[in-house]
Amino acid sequence: PGTDPAPVVATVDSTRNQAVVTRPAVNGQQVIPLDDGGRMEGMMKNNTRVGPWASYFPDNTLRSRITYVDGVEEGPTEVNHPNGMPYYTGQYLHGKNFGEWVFYNDRGEELKRVAYDSVGVIIRR
Fold this sequence. Notes:
Layout: E1 9-13, E2 18-22, E3 28-33, E4 39-45, E5 48-56, E6 62-69, E7 72-73, E8 75-80, E9 86-93, E10 96-104, E11 110-116, E12 122-124
Antiparallel strand pairs: 1-2, 3-4, 4-5, 5-6, 6-7, 6-8, 8-9, 9-10, 10-11, 11-12
């Protein structure tokens, strides 16, 4: 696993007579440091997120969990407050919010529910 970006490769596009900068495909398990000292972890295949990904606060408390299919959010997701209590839970369908999402305060008390249709449009607040 690595956190270093892949090296830059420069080639020349002869049809446009300009340099093209690319990076080789990133594959395998990734551990990506976050600006606040936390991290996110998951699998990459050809520069695309696949499978389960998780992120953690600096103290290793779970920040979020989500699954990707070909780089698109799919299925259940959860995001937590820094104290570990849930912030919201929901589900994605083809990268769009879907079904009922539930939001909580930092004490774990439910604040609201929002329902989305299959294309991510709010149908109920």
